[in-house]
Design a protein that fits this description.
Blueprint: H1 13-26, H2 35-50
Length: 67
């Protein structure tokens, strides 16, 4: 049995943003995602980056724009 995540008030902004993404994805496993759900995931990722998690400057591994 898994332990529930700490409440948002007990988490740092980074942890809270990360948990929001995890919860959102977990609730939508094994189903096709709608445009609205993909937009919400994008919003959550932006919040995660603003919280200080996503500084990937210099890391282009996720860049799909080509060489």
């Amino acid at each position: 049995m898994s332990v529930p995540p700490p409440s948002a008030s007990d988490q740092s902004p980074v942890s809270a943003a990360n948990e929001a993404i995890r919860r959102f994805v977990r609730e939508r496993s094994n189903v096709a995602w709608t445009r609205a759900e993909l937009a919400e995931l994008d919003r959550l990722r932006r919040a995660w980056r603003r919280a200080g998690c996503g500084d990937r400057s210099g890391d282009r591994t996720g860049d799909r724009s080509g060489p």
